[in-house]
Structure formats: C-alpha cells, structure tokens
C-alpha cells in the first residue's frame, strides 16, 4: 500500500509539472477497463461525501438542483456518476469527431484522474472555508484555473492534438452546448423556473 501511495503521490506531482507526460505515464500503467470504471464510481462516491459535507456547513438556498442533491447522498452519488460518465463520453466522442485518436478507456482514465486531482482541491477549499473563509474563494478560482489547464492538456494528449488553443476553444464550446442541453432537461424535470437558479 505504501508503494501505491508513493506512486500516486509521484503521479500527482508529475501531473502538476507536466500534465501530458503524466497522462502518458498513466496510460503506461495499463489499468484494466474494469478498474477504470470502478474508479469512476469511486470518484462519484468521494465527490458525494465532500459535497454533503459542504451542504452540512452551508445548507443550499432556493436552488432546486442543490436542494435535490442535498436530499439524499444516494441521489447525489448517482448524479455525480452520471456527470463523470457523460464527461468521459463527451471527451471521447467530440475528440474523435475532430480527428482525435483517443479510446473510450483512456477517456475514462482522464476523467478519473482529473477528478482525483480536483477532489484534493475541493478538500483544501472545504478546509479553508472552515478555517480561513476568505481564502476558500481564492482556492476556488485557482482550482478552476487548474481544472481548465489539466483538462486541455489531458484532452490534447489523449487525442494527439498539438494546438492547446484549439483544444481550449473546443472545450469551451462543448461545455456551453452541454450546459444548454442539461438546462433544457432540468427545465423539463423541475419546471422552467429552474433556469433562473442554475
């Protein structure tokens, strides 16, 4: 276990220094698809734990989506898992549509590893809100920047793209399209009023 922990620590350090090199190192591990899928579920569970802790510290307001998630950890875990699965599908499908060469399994690997890194940021932010509240907001901004940087580099490496600028543009456009689609679905589930709170 100590060896595994040290390996994960080294990969996290490499990720922060050289995201594309870190993804190549992860791919070289040849993690089975079943383990990658299990990792997706594990990330959903860990995300749920942190989100529920956040709800306990700061109960959600009138936002119906946050209210729905706060009702049950199981509901939150299912939503988190679906979001991660949808993200992996988008990374694979959109990348392939533009000539990328990445596989489904590696797209799942990207999402699992990226989520693991962001869980660390989320945990640090949660602790900051408890101990030094103003610092929590700064960590949130830094975490968002880190998320974009890692996402662009991981997707570029996954699909063999050279231009990080074009990958960034594609990521932004795909995100807006996905948000619009999700907003439409939410309006059908919760009613049109939900769009004013999302």
Verbal overview:
The protein is mainly α and 198 residues long. It has one domain (32-196). The protein is 84% helix and 0% strand. The protein contains 8 helices and no strands. It has helices at 2-17, 19-28, 33-57, 64-71, 73-97, 104-131, 133-159, 164-190. α1 (2-17) runs antiparallel to α2, α3 (33-57) crosses α5 and α6 packs antiparallel against α7.
Defining key terms:
8 helices; 0% strand; 198 residues; 84% helix; mainly alpha; globular
Unreliable segments of 5+ consecutive residues: none
Radius of gyration: 17 Å
Structural class of the secondary elements? mainly alpha
| SS element count, helices | 8
Helix residue percentage: over 70%
Overall structural domain count = 1
Beta-strand content: under 5%
**C-alpha geometry:** globular
